[in-house]
Amino acid sequence: MLRFVLFGGWLCSLVVGLVALSCSAPTPPSLVAIRPASAPNQQDSPLTLLGEGFDSTAKAWLVGADGSKIALQELRVLEPGKAEAVLPKGAAAGFYDVLWEQDGASSRLGSAFEVLSGVLTIDMVDVGQGDALLIRVAGGKTVLIDAGREEDVDALIDFVRKEGINRFDIVIATHYDADHVGGFAKLVYGEDGRPNTDDDRRPTEAWWDRGGFSKSTSYSSVRSLFPNIRKTLDGSGPESFPSVDLGAGVKLQVVTTNGSVLQKDGTLAKVDCGADENCRSVGTLISLGKFQFWTAGDLTGGGIDTPDVESTLAKIVDPVEVYRAHHHGSRTSSSQGLLDALSPQMILISAGRQNSYCHPSDEVLKRISPIPDLSLFVTTSGMIDGEKCGYVTSELVSVMGQRALLNAGNIRVQAGEDRYTVRSASGEVRAFEAR
Ligand SMILES: [Zn+2]
Questions:
Q1: Where is the domain boundary, 99, 116, 133?
Q2: Same domain (yes/no): 208, 320
Q3: CA of 327 to the centre of ligand 1 (A)
Q4: Separation of 325 CA from ligand 1 center, angstroms?
Protein backbone atom coordinates (compact mmCIF):
# COMPACT_ATOMS: atom_id res chain seq x y z
CA MET A 1 0.00 0.00 0.00
CA LEU A 2 1.37 3.36 -0.98
CA ARG A 3 0.82 6.37 1.24
CA PHE A 4 1.91 10.00 0.90
CA VAL A 5 3.07 11.91 3.91
CA LEU A 6 4.03 15.60 4.21
CA PHE A 7 7.06 16.52 6.37
CA GLY A 8 7.49 20.29 6.61
CA GLY A 9 6.77 20.81 2.94
CA TRP A 10 8.57 17.66 1.73
CA LEU A 11 6.25 15.17 0.03
CA CYS A 12 7.21 11.60 0.92
CA SER A 13 5.82 8.30 -0.36
CA LEU A 14 5.78 5.56 2.21
CA VAL A 15 5.28 1.94 1.18
CA VAL A 16 3.58 0.48 4.22
CA GLY A 17 4.99 -2.83 5.50
CA LEU A 18 8.29 -2.37 3.72
CA VAL A 19 11.19 -0.16 4.69
CA ALA A 20 10.93 2.15 1.76
CA LEU A 21 10.65 5.91 2.02
CA SER A 22 11.30 8.33 -0.82
CA CYS A 23 10.92 12.06 -0.59
CA SER A 24 10.71 14.87 -3.14
CA ALA A 25 11.76 18.46 -2.49
CA PRO A 26 8.93 20.93 -1.82
CA THR A 27 7.70 22.90 -4.82
CA PRO A 28 9.42 26.28 -4.51
CA PRO A 29 6.90 29.07 -4.03
CA SER A 30 6.12 31.07 -7.11
CA LEU A 31 4.15 34.29 -6.98
CA VAL A 32 2.22 35.00 -10.19
CA ALA A 33 -0.17 37.86 -9.44
CA ILE A 34 -1.66 40.10 -6.78
CA ARG A 35 -5.29 41.23 -6.96
CA PRO A 36 -6.28 43.99 -6.97
CA ALA A 37 -3.16 45.57 -8.46
CA SER A 38 -3.71 48.81 -6.55
CA ALA A 39 -5.34 50.00 -3.34
CA PRO A 40 -5.77 53.34 -1.57
CA ASN A 41 -3.78 54.06 1.59
CA GLN A 42 -6.67 55.53 3.62
CA GLN A 43 -7.99 52.13 4.69
CA ASP A 44 -7.01 48.51 5.30
CA SER A 45 -7.29 46.68 1.97
CA PRO A 46 -7.92 42.96 1.42
CA LEU A 47 -5.63 41.38 -1.19
CA THR A 48 -5.48 38.02 -2.98
CA LEU A 49 -2.12 36.50 -3.93
CA LEU A 50 -2.00 33.92 -6.72
CA GLY A 51 0.81 31.51 -7.60
CA GLU A 52 1.92 27.99 -6.68
CA GLY A 53 3.71 26.09 -3.95
CA PHE A 54 2.34 28.29 -1.15
CA ASP A 55 2.47 26.86 2.36
CA SER A 56 1.17 28.12 5.65
CA THR A 57 4.61 29.07 7.03
CA ALA A 58 4.91 31.89 4.45
CA LYS A 59 5.26 35.60 4.98
CA ALA A 60 4.62 38.32 2.39
CA TRP A 61 5.69 41.95 2.02
CA LEU A 62 5.41 44.97 -0.23
CA VAL A 63 8.90 46.30 -0.94
CA GLY A 64 9.32 49.95 -1.92
CA ALA A 65 11.86 51.35 -4.38
CA ASP A 66 14.02 52.42 -1.41
CA GLY A 67 13.98 48.86 0.01
CA SER A 68 11.46 49.65 2.78
CA LYS A 69 9.21 46.71 3.61
CA ILE A 70 5.52 46.64 4.60
CA ALA A 71 4.38 43.29 6.01
CA LEU A 72 1.05 42.03 4.70
CA GLN A 73 -1.16 41.15 7.68
CA GLU A 74 -3.45 38.20 8.37
CA LEU A 75 -1.82 36.09 5.64
CA ARG A 76 -3.87 32.93 5.08
CA VAL A 77 -2.95 30.25 2.52
CA LEU A 78 -6.27 28.92 1.24
CA GLU A 79 -4.73 26.45 -1.22
CA PRO A 80 -1.22 25.98 -2.67
CA GLY A 81 -1.99 28.56 -5.38
CA LYS A 82 -4.04 31.11 -3.48
CA ALA A 83 -3.64 33.20 -0.35
CA GLU A 84 -5.40 36.16 1.24
CA ALA A 85 -3.86 39.01 3.19
CA VAL A 86 -4.57 42.56 4.31
CA LEU A 87 -2.53 45.64 3.47
CA PRO A 88 -2.71 47.91 6.51
CA LYS A 89 -3.63 51.53 5.86
CA GLY A 90 -1.02 54.27 5.87
CA ALA A 91 1.51 52.98 3.28
CA ALA A 92 3.25 55.69 1.25
CA ALA A 93 1.84 56.12 -2.25
CA GLY A 94 3.88 54.58 -5.07
CA PHE A 95 4.81 51.34 -6.76
CA TYR A 96 5.95 48.29 -4.80
CA ASP A 97 7.44 44.86 -5.49
CA VAL A 98 5.58 41.99 -3.86
CA LEU A 99 7.80 39.53 -1.96
CA TRP A 100 6.82 36.03 -0.81
CA GLU A 101 9.07 34.03 1.54
CA GLN A 102 8.80 30.52 3.00
CA ASP A 103 11.31 27.86 4.06
CA GLY A 104 14.25 29.99 3.01
CA ALA A 105 12.91 30.29 -0.55
CA SER A 106 11.38 33.44 -2.02
CA SER A 107 9.50 34.73 -5.03
CA ARG A 108 9.24 38.38 -6.06
CA LEU A 109 7.01 40.32 -8.48
CA GLY A 110 8.59 43.58 -9.64
CA SER A 111 6.47 46.78 -9.46
CA ALA A 112 3.34 44.67 -9.26
CA PHE A 113 1.38 46.78 -6.80
CA GLU A 114 0.50 50.45 -6.47
CA VAL A 115 -0.50 52.21 -3.28
CA LEU A 116 -2.81 55.12 -4.18
CA SER A 117 -2.92 58.43 -2.33
CA GLY A 118 -6.31 59.99 -3.15
CA VAL A 119 -9.73 58.53 -2.44
CA LEU A 120 -10.92 59.09 -6.02
CA THR A 121 -9.51 57.10 -8.96
CA ILE A 122 -10.75 57.73 -12.50
CA ASP A 123 -9.42 55.41 -15.20
CA MET A 124 -9.88 56.19 -18.88
CA VAL A 125 -9.34 52.71 -20.30
CA ASP A 126 -7.79 52.63 -23.77
CA VAL A 127 -10.48 50.90 -25.83
CA GLY A 128 -9.22 52.20 -29.18
CA GLN A 129 -11.84 54.22 -31.07
CA GLY A 130 -14.40 54.37 -28.27
CA ASP A 131 -14.86 55.30 -24.64
CA ALA A 132 -14.82 53.57 -21.28
CA LEU A 133 -14.40 55.39 -17.97
CA LEU A 134 -14.20 53.79 -14.54
CA ILE A 135 -14.71 55.88 -11.42
CA ARG A 136 -13.82 54.35 -8.06
CA VAL A 137 -13.96 55.77 -4.57
CA ALA A 138 -11.99 54.14 -1.75
CA GLY A 139 -14.57 52.69 0.60
CA GLY A 140 -17.30 54.01 -1.69
CA LYS A 141 -18.96 53.30 -4.99
CA THR A 142 -17.71 52.14 -8.40
CA VAL A 143 -19.21 53.71 -11.54
CA LEU A 144 -18.75 52.61 -15.14
CA ILE A 145 -19.46 55.14 -17.89
CA ASP A 146 -19.57 53.47 -21.34
CA ALA A 147 -17.87 50.22 -22.38
CA GLY A 148 -16.34 50.87 -25.83
CA ARG A 149 -17.02 48.85 -28.98
CA GLU A 150 -17.80 45.15 -28.75
CA GLU A 151 -14.60 44.27 -30.64
CA ASP A 152 -12.48 46.31 -28.20
CA VAL A 153 -14.15 45.46 -24.89
CA ASP A 154 -11.52 42.81 -24.03
CA ALA A 155 -9.22 45.68 -23.06
CA LEU A 156 -11.82 46.81 -20.51
CA ILE A 157 -12.49 43.26 -19.31
CA ASP A 158 -8.75 42.68 -18.81
CA PHE A 159 -8.56 45.94 -16.89
CA VAL A 160 -11.42 45.17 -14.48
CA ARG A 161 -10.06 41.65 -13.94
CA LYS A 162 -6.59 42.94 -13.13
CA GLU A 163 -7.99 45.58 -10.80
CA GLY A 164 -10.19 43.01 -9.05
CA ILE A 165 -13.43 44.82 -9.91
CA ASN A 166 -16.27 42.31 -9.97
CA ARG A 167 -19.26 44.57 -9.55
CA PHE A 168 -20.39 48.03 -10.50
CA ASP A 169 -22.69 50.12 -8.35
CA ILE A 170 -23.77 52.44 -11.14
CA VAL A 171 -23.59 51.99 -14.91
CA ILE A 172 -24.12 54.94 -17.25
CA ALA A 173 -24.52 54.66 -21.02
CA THR A 174 -23.93 58.16 -22.37
CA HIS A 175 -25.68 57.49 -25.71
CA TYR A 176 -26.35 54.63 -28.10
CA ASP A 177 -23.47 54.72 -30.57
CA ALA A 178 -21.62 51.40 -30.84
CA ASP A 179 -18.29 52.85 -29.68
CA HIS A 180 -19.90 53.60 -26.30
CA VAL A 181 -22.47 50.84 -25.70
CA GLY A 182 -21.29 47.98 -27.95
CA GLY A 183 -19.13 46.42 -25.22
CA PHE A 184 -21.68 46.34 -22.37
CA ALA A 185 -23.23 42.95 -23.18
CA LYS A 186 -19.92 41.06 -23.33
CA LEU A 187 -18.69 42.78 -20.18
CA VAL A 188 -21.85 42.01 -18.18
CA TYR A 189 -22.35 38.43 -19.46
CA GLY A 190 -18.91 37.36 -18.21
CA GLU A 191 -16.65 34.55 -19.41
CA ASP A 192 -19.44 32.22 -20.55
CA GLY A 193 -20.98 34.90 -22.77
CA ARG A 194 -24.46 34.19 -21.43
CA PRO A 195 -26.71 36.38 -19.28
CA ASN A 196 -28.19 35.30 -15.94
CA THR A 197 -25.31 33.06 -14.91
CA ASP A 198 -23.04 33.20 -11.87
CA ASP A 199 -20.18 34.98 -13.59
CA ASP A 200 -22.24 37.98 -14.76
CA ARG A 201 -20.84 41.39 -13.81
CA ARG A 202 -24.12 42.86 -12.61
CA PRO A 203 -24.67 46.47 -11.65
CA THR A 204 -26.09 46.60 -8.12
CA GLU A 205 -27.66 50.01 -7.72
CA ALA A 206 -28.46 51.89 -10.93
CA TRP A 207 -28.33 51.64 -14.71
CA TRP A 208 -28.84 54.96 -16.42
CA ASP A 209 -29.32 55.94 -20.03
CA ARG A 210 -31.23 58.56 -22.00
CA GLY A 211 -34.21 56.26 -22.53
CA GLY A 212 -36.01 55.70 -25.82
CA PHE A 213 -35.04 53.35 -28.61
CA SER A 214 -31.47 52.06 -28.84
CA LYS A 215 -30.31 51.14 -32.32
CA SER A 216 -27.73 48.84 -30.70
CA THR A 217 -29.60 45.54 -30.27
CA SER A 218 -26.96 44.06 -27.96
CA TYR A 219 -27.32 47.10 -25.72
CA SER A 220 -31.13 46.85 -25.75
CA SER A 221 -30.80 43.22 -24.63
CA VAL A 222 -28.36 43.83 -21.78
CA ARG A 223 -30.18 46.84 -20.31
CA SER A 224 -33.47 44.94 -20.28
CA LEU A 225 -31.95 42.49 -17.76
CA PHE A 226 -32.10 45.11 -15.01
CA PRO A 227 -35.65 46.50 -14.94
CA ASN A 228 -35.51 47.10 -11.18
CA ILE A 229 -32.52 49.40 -11.24
CA ARG A 230 -32.74 50.87 -14.73
CA LYS A 231 -33.63 54.53 -14.78
CA THR A 232 -34.37 56.64 -17.82
CA LEU A 233 -32.74 60.07 -17.90
CA ASP A 234 -34.88 61.52 -20.69
CA GLY A 235 -34.26 65.13 -19.66
CA SER A 236 -37.95 65.94 -19.24
CA GLY A 237 -37.79 66.81 -15.53
CA PRO A 238 -35.50 67.21 -12.53
CA GLU A 239 -35.55 63.46 -11.81
CA SER A 240 -33.42 63.04 -14.97
CA PHE A 241 -30.53 64.79 -13.21
CA PRO A 242 -29.56 62.60 -10.25
CA SER A 243 -26.91 63.64 -7.79
CA VAL A 244 -25.21 60.74 -6.01
CA ASP A 245 -22.87 60.61 -3.03
CA LEU A 246 -20.17 58.13 -4.10
CA GLY A 247 -18.62 58.12 -0.63
CA ALA A 248 -15.66 59.91 1.01
CA GLY A 249 -16.95 63.30 -0.14
CA VAL A 250 -17.08 62.43 -3.85
CA LYS A 251 -20.22 63.57 -5.66
CA LEU A 252 -21.52 62.65 -9.10
CA GLN A 253 -24.03 65.05 -10.66
CA VAL A 254 -25.78 64.55 -14.00
CA VAL A 255 -25.90 67.97 -15.70
CA THR A 256 -27.03 67.21 -19.26
CA THR A 257 -28.97 64.41 -20.90
CA ASN A 258 -31.06 63.97 -24.05
CA GLY A 259 -30.46 67.59 -25.07
CA SER A 260 -31.55 69.09 -21.71
CA VAL A 261 -29.18 71.04 -19.48
CA LEU A 262 -29.81 71.52 -15.75
CA GLN A 263 -29.58 75.21 -14.84
CA LYS A 264 -28.24 76.51 -11.51
CA ASP A 265 -31.78 77.46 -10.44
CA GLY A 266 -33.02 73.90 -11.08
CA THR A 267 -34.87 74.72 -14.29
CA LEU A 268 -34.04 73.03 -17.59
CA ALA A 269 -32.73 74.49 -20.85
CA LYS A 270 -33.51 72.34 -23.87
CA VAL A 271 -31.77 71.97 -27.21
CA ASP A 272 -33.54 70.28 -30.13
CA CYS A 273 -31.32 67.29 -30.95
CA GLY A 274 -33.38 66.18 -33.95
CA ALA A 275 -31.85 62.96 -35.26
CA ASP A 276 -28.43 63.66 -33.71
CA GLU A 277 -27.51 60.91 -31.26
CA ASN A 278 -24.37 62.58 -29.90
CA CYS A 279 -26.38 65.65 -28.85
CA ARG A 280 -28.30 63.44 -26.43
CA SER A 281 -25.20 62.33 -24.48
CA VAL A 282 -25.42 62.11 -20.70
CA GLY A 283 -22.91 64.51 -19.12
CA THR A 284 -21.69 64.26 -15.54
CA LEU A 285 -19.61 66.32 -13.18
CA ILE A 286 -17.54 64.37 -10.64
CA SER A 287 -16.28 66.43 -7.74
CA LEU A 288 -14.22 66.06 -4.57
CA GLY A 289 -13.30 69.19 -2.60
CA LYS A 290 -11.73 71.58 -5.08
CA PHE A 291 -11.26 68.86 -7.72
CA GLN A 292 -13.75 68.66 -10.60
CA PHE A 293 -13.87 66.31 -13.61
CA TRP A 294 -16.23 66.79 -16.57
CA THR A 295 -17.24 64.02 -18.98
CA ALA A 296 -20.15 63.90 -21.48
CA GLY A 297 -19.80 61.20 -24.14
CA ASP A 298 -19.95 62.69 -27.63
CA LEU A 299 -21.84 65.86 -26.69
CA THR A 300 -22.05 68.34 -29.58
CA GLY A 301 -21.16 72.03 -29.78
CA GLY A 302 -22.35 73.17 -33.20
CA GLY A 303 -19.36 72.09 -35.31
CA ILE A 304 -20.28 70.55 -38.71
CA ASP A 305 -23.83 71.86 -38.19
CA THR A 306 -24.51 69.71 -35.13
CA PRO A 307 -27.04 70.86 -32.51
CA ASP A 308 -25.20 73.07 -30.01
CA VAL A 309 -25.57 71.84 -26.43
CA GLU A 310 -22.11 73.03 -25.41
CA SER A 311 -23.09 76.75 -25.59
CA THR A 312 -25.97 76.14 -23.20
CA LEU A 313 -23.66 74.16 -20.95
CA ALA A 314 -20.95 76.83 -21.09
CA LYS A 315 -23.34 79.33 -19.47
CA ILE A 316 -23.73 77.29 -16.30
CA VAL A 317 -20.59 75.20 -15.86
CA ASP A 318 -17.79 76.28 -13.51
CA PRO A 319 -14.11 75.77 -14.33
CA VAL A 320 -12.94 72.16 -13.91
CA GLU A 321 -9.55 70.55 -13.36
CA VAL A 322 -9.95 67.78 -15.96
CA TYR A 323 -12.05 67.79 -19.14
CA ARG A 324 -12.51 64.48 -20.96
CA ALA A 325 -12.88 65.84 -24.48
CA HIS A 326 -16.30 65.32 -26.04
CA HIS A 327 -16.55 63.05 -29.10
CA HIS A 328 -12.90 61.89 -29.14
CA GLY A 329 -11.70 65.41 -29.98
CA SER A 330 -13.98 65.72 -33.02
CA ARG A 331 -14.60 69.16 -34.57
CA THR A 332 -18.32 68.73 -33.80
CA SER A 333 -17.41 69.53 -30.21
CA SER A 334 -15.07 71.28 -27.74
CA SER A 335 -16.19 74.71 -28.97
CA GLN A 336 -14.12 77.75 -27.96
CA GLY A 337 -16.96 78.88 -25.68
CA LEU A 338 -16.99 75.58 -23.82
CA LEU A 339 -13.19 75.47 -23.48
CA ASP A 340 -13.26 79.03 -22.08
CA ALA A 341 -15.97 78.12 -19.57
CA LEU A 342 -14.38 74.85 -18.44
CA SER A 343 -10.88 76.33 -18.43
CA PRO A 344 -9.33 72.92 -17.67
CA GLN A 345 -5.77 72.23 -16.51
CA MET A 346 -5.78 68.83 -18.22
CA ILE A 347 -7.64 67.46 -21.25
CA LEU A 348 -7.95 63.73 -21.89
CA ILE A 349 -8.82 62.37 -25.34
CA SER A 350 -9.81 58.79 -26.12
CA ALA A 351 -9.36 58.10 -29.84
CA GLY A 352 -8.18 55.14 -31.91
CA ARG A 353 -4.82 55.07 -33.68
CA GLN A 354 -5.27 56.10 -37.34
CA ASN A 355 -9.07 55.97 -36.92
CA SER A 356 -11.39 56.52 -39.87
CA TYR A 357 -12.94 59.69 -38.33
CA CYS A 358 -9.77 61.83 -38.20
CA HIS A 359 -10.02 62.11 -34.40
CA PRO A 360 -8.75 64.15 -32.68
CA SER A 361 -9.44 66.90 -35.20
CA ASP A 362 -7.02 69.61 -36.28
CA GLU A 363 -9.61 72.27 -35.35
CA VAL A 364 -9.85 71.15 -31.73
CA LEU A 365 -6.10 70.65 -31.34
CA LYS A 366 -5.52 74.15 -32.73
CA ARG A 367 -7.94 75.53 -30.12
CA ILE A 368 -6.27 73.56 -27.32
CA SER A 369 -2.58 73.90 -28.10
CA PRO A 370 -2.19 77.70 -27.58
CA ILE A 371 -3.78 77.63 -24.09
CA PRO A 372 -1.00 78.37 -21.59
CA ASP A 373 -0.27 75.74 -18.93
CA LEU A 374 -2.83 73.33 -20.38
CA SER A 375 -1.80 69.66 -20.47
CA LEU A 376 -3.13 66.99 -22.84
CA PHE A 377 -3.03 63.19 -22.75
CA VAL A 378 -4.29 61.13 -25.71
CA THR A 379 -4.77 57.37 -25.33
CA THR A 380 -3.14 56.58 -28.71
CA SER A 381 -0.97 58.31 -31.30
CA GLY A 382 -4.17 59.44 -33.08
CA MET A 383 -3.69 60.23 -36.78
CA ILE A 384 -0.25 59.11 -37.92
CA ASP A 385 -0.76 59.34 -41.69
CA GLY A 386 -1.12 62.84 -43.17
CA GLU A 387 -2.58 61.44 -46.38
CA LYS A 388 -5.95 60.57 -44.91
CA CYS A 389 -7.00 63.70 -43.02
CA GLY A 390 -4.37 66.24 -44.03
CA TYR A 391 -2.76 66.32 -40.60
CA VAL A 392 -0.69 64.25 -38.18
CA THR A 393 -1.61 64.44 -34.48
CA SER A 394 1.97 64.52 -33.21
CA GLU A 395 2.77 67.55 -35.40
CA LEU A 396 -0.31 69.46 -34.23
CA VAL A 397 0.53 69.02 -30.54
CA SER A 398 4.30 69.52 -30.88
CA VAL A 399 3.93 73.21 -29.90
CA MET A 400 2.80 72.00 -26.46
CA GLY A 401 6.11 70.26 -25.84
CA GLN A 402 6.13 68.16 -22.67
CA ARG A 403 2.60 69.29 -21.83
CA ALA A 404 1.21 66.94 -24.50
CA LEU A 405 1.56 63.17 -24.31
CA LEU A 406 0.42 60.80 -27.06
CA ASN A 407 0.23 57.00 -26.74
CA ALA A 408 -0.70 57.36 -23.08
CA GLY A 409 -2.64 54.06 -23.12
CA ASN A 410 -4.81 53.60 -20.04
CA ILE A 411 -4.88 56.97 -18.29
CA ARG A 412 -5.33 57.20 -14.52
CA VAL A 413 -6.47 60.29 -12.64
CA GLN A 414 -5.88 60.00 -8.90
CA ALA A 415 -7.47 62.77 -6.84
CA GLY A 416 -7.68 64.04 -3.30
CA GLU A 417 -9.50 67.22 -2.24
CA ASP A 418 -6.67 69.61 -3.11
CA ARG A 419 -4.29 67.77 -5.43
CA TYR A 420 -4.37 65.22 -8.19
CA THR A 421 -2.11 63.35 -10.55
CA VAL A 422 -2.62 62.09 -14.10
CA ARG A 423 -0.58 59.09 -15.20
CA SER A 424 -0.04 57.25 -18.47
CA ALA A 425 0.23 53.48 -18.77
CA SER A 426 4.00 53.78 -19.13
CA GLY A 427 4.23 55.71 -15.85
CA GLU A 428 4.57 59.34 -16.99
CA VAL A 429 2.99 61.42 -14.24
CA ARG A 430 1.77 65.02 -14.11
CA ALA A 431 0.89 66.45 -10.70
CA PHE A 432 -1.48 69.40 -10.18
CA GLU A 433 -2.95 71.55 -7.43
CA ALA A 434 -6.73 71.74 -7.73
CA ARG A 435 -7.97 75.32 -7.96
ZN1 LIG B 1 -18.00 58.14 -29.68
A1: 116
A2: yes
A3: 5
A4: 11
